[in-house]
């Protein structure tokens, strides 16, 4: 159940340092919409981390700048956004436009004649979501070449299986699964960092 009032938001910060579920993030979004400062900080910290994944992959030399510029626009338009999904879609579209501007700058330096028109913003970040999904799936498969158990665990988590289901499917105890999941996630993070310069 979502938190509805400012007085109810304090419970959310108990899991401030933990990984947040989608339901948790929706609660943070609701708190931010109510004007809660901690909620706003937490929400935009999450949005920033999502944008940095793509920016570091697409334009590593300008990632910090394009993300900061994107966040300024997203923050300005935040009052008009009605859902967490809409916020993320809009943020990714803004980032894509900013990255496009960087690409245009590269071409101009090479004296290529490109139009200077800004792309219109829209609430559709599906292409960015698909690219992130492709990178993750590809990395899980590559990791599985040397660590097949990791491929099985991470693929199951990626497709939304619960730990109990994964434990039963793979025939390993929940405690063993917890240890292996930690190691596999660490290996996946290392691979994403080394292969795609993604810090997750």
Strand content: under 5%
Task: Please summarize the sheet with the most strands.
Answer: none
User: Structural class of the helix and strand makeup?
Assistant: mainly alpha
**DSSP helix count?**
8
Identify the overall geometry.
flat
What is the number of E strands? 0
How far the N terminus sits from the C terminus, by CA atoms, comes to 28 Å
Please state the average pLDDT score: 78
CATH architecture of the largest domain: Orthogonal Bundle
Q: What is the chain-wise order of helices and strands?
A: HHHHHHHH
Describe, in short, the structure shown.
With 200 residues, this protein is mainly alpha-helical. It has helices at residues 22-33, 37-58, 63-77, 84-109, 126-144, 148-158, 163-170, 174-196. It has two domains: 6-109, Rna Polymerase Sigma Factor, Chain: A (Orthogonal Bundle); 126-196, Arc Repressor Mutant, subunit A (Orthogonal Bundle), CATH 1.10.10.
Would you kindly provide a written description of the structure presented here, covering whatever features stand out?
With 200 residues, the chain is mainly alpha-helical. The chain has two domains: 6-109, Rna Polymerase Sigma Factor, Chain: A; 126-196, Orthogonal Bundle (Arc Repressor Mutant, subunit A). It is built from eight helices and no strands. It has helices at 22-33, 37-58, 63-77, 84-109, 126-144, 148-158, 163-170, 174-196. The longest helix has 26 residues, at 84-109. The protein is flat, with a radius of gyration of 19 Å.
List the helices and strands and how they pair.
Layout lengths: L21 H12 L3 H22 L4 H15 L6 H26 L16 H19 L3 H11 L4 H8 L3 H23 L4
């Amino acid at each position: 159940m979502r938190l509805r009032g400012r007085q109810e938001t304090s419970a959310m910060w108990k899991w401030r340092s933990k990984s947040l579920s989608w339901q948790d993030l929706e609660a943070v979004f609701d708190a931010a919409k109510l004007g809660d400062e901690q909620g706003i900080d937490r929400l935009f910290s999450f949005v920033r981390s999502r944008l940095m994944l793509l920016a570091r992959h697409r334009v590593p030399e300008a990632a910090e700048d394009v993300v900061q510029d994107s966040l300024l626009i997203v923050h300005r338009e935040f009052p008009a956004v009605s859902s967490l999904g809409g916020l993320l879609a809009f943020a990714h579209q803004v980032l894509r436009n900013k990255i496009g501007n960087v690409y245009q700058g590269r071409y101009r330096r090479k004296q290529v004649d490109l139009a200077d028109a800004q792309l219109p913003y829209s609430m559709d970040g599906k292409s960015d979501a698909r690219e992130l999904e492709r990178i993750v799936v590809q990395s899980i498969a590559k990791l599985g070449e040397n660590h097949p158990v990791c491929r099985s665990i991470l693929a199951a988590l990626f497709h939304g299986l619960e730990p109990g289901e994964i434990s039963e499917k793979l025939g390993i105890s929940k405690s063993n699964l917890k240890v292996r999941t930690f190691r596999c996630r660490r290996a996946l993070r290392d691979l994403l960092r080394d292969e795609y310069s993604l810090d997750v």
